[in-house]
Amino acid sequence: MRLIIRFESGVRVEAVLLAAGADAMRIIPSQGNTLELVRVGDSWYTEQGDLAEIEALIATPGIDVTQSQGPVRPQHLAAGSSYSVA
Question: Which of 2, 15, 51, 68 fits a disulfide with 20 by CB distance 3.0 to 4.6 angstroms?
């Protein structure tokens, strides 16, 4: 599975999901070393405590990840508004 992640700084990266559980995941960004993200409440954070928003999950054909992410709450961004949780 591939992900698009946006960090607090506004930087967006594409990454590959290496391992995932309900409250932690290990990813490897397209350029860089592996990162561990941990979930606290409804948010994901890096090992350094920086907020990491998962903007997109892109499935890889033939790989079932339906049991790996825990509860998912969709988010959307509308023009001229702030983030809202549906």
Answer: 68
Q: What is the pLDDT of residue 81?
A: 47
Residue 85: predicted pLDDT = 47
The one-letter code for the residue type at 16 is V
Distance CA(37)–CA(27), nearest Å, equals: 8
Q: Are 67 and 20 in contact (CB under 8 A)?
A: no
Residue 57 belongs to domain spanning: 2-62
Task: Give the DSSP letter of residue 23.
Answer: S
pTM of the model: 0.67
Which residue has 């594409």 as its token pair?
Answer: 14
Do residues 53 and 69 make contact, with C-beta atoms less than 8 angstroms apart?
A: no
Mean pLDDT of 5-20: 90
* Any domain includes 27: yes
